[in-house]
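Regression report. Comparing outputs from two consecutive submissions.

Submission 1:
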Amino acid sequence: MAHKSSGSSDASEAIAADTPETREEMASKLVDRFALWSGVAGLIPLPVVDVLAVGGLQIQMVRRLSQIYDVAFSENRGKALIASIAGAAIPASSAFGVASALKAVPIFGTVVSGFVMPVLSAGATYGIGKAFIQHFESGGTLLDFNPPDYREFIKAQKEKWEARSKDAGSESSPPGSAHSTAGGTATSS
């Protein structure tokens, strides 16, 4: 497959996604990358700033996904969809705010939110990204996306994210126990 040379990676990703398989693979890698960055943004020690950073990353992720799927993107529509998906489909959104607010409590709050916020941020971003991939794969656009329709899908994606997190934890366990828990679960990338 020939790639056209352009000044931005956004344009080259949109050009490179010419088959459904390639497009889905690129989109999944993009969601994984943004989920990791959202987890990192969850570590920002300032309440509210962390939530704004994660929200910005999620909007950027949806914008990049719409480029991959050649769907028109409106930033205002993207913001509204992210907000409504968080409110309608992710029950953890209230925990998200509480974890962020805990950062205002010296020592205890910072430590607790340091463990909780990255996981919530990454998991929410992963679920939102996978929901948009499914929607765009089925020919949907930002205008016909209905967050309540994706409640169960996002719950399933949240469970997958938690399973991935647990698998990653078992793979980093001591060498003696890694053979029994991660023997068949390791993937190559």
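Submission 2:
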Amino acid sequence: MLDKALEWISRTLLALAALLAFALCFVVVADVSGRVLFNRPVKGTPEIVSYSIVVICYLQAAFAIRSGGMINTDAFTAHLPLRVQSLLAALGALLGVALFSLICWGGIDGAAHAWRSGEFEGEGALRIPAWPARFSIVGGTALAALSYFLLMLRNLDAVRKGAPPATAATSH
């Protein structure tokens, strides 16, 4: 049940990230067009783009892990026995859990501070609140850590069965 819920959430966040990237295209085109045609760029475009890229990346992290889209080099491990391959994949997933958990834990205070203090990015014409990007980092890394944890469990099961390593949520 947790796996299905995480699948739905990761796909929904992927769609949201895609919509944000699509909208960002219009902002950039409007900025460039305004700059070239009217000598009036869209104010705040650098801030909008920089914050949006952070949000887009972290919204799709869990889906990238679940779909097997994260970098995985098996040139050295491909010739090892299946149990060893699966054990190394479980270890790699454990390291992914640790990395994303640390990023999540490290981002909680910053996100809470941004929310409480009304922190903004940018000066002058456009000020963008910092909390959406900060909370997307916290939420995205929490989901990524959970995704790696489930992948680690799949790989430990593969070790027990002597099966090839699982690289995505669809691998059982």
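Expected: both submissions complete independently.
Actual: both completed, but the second showed a warning that disappeared on reload.
Relevant detail on submission 2: Strands lie at 120-121, 128-129.
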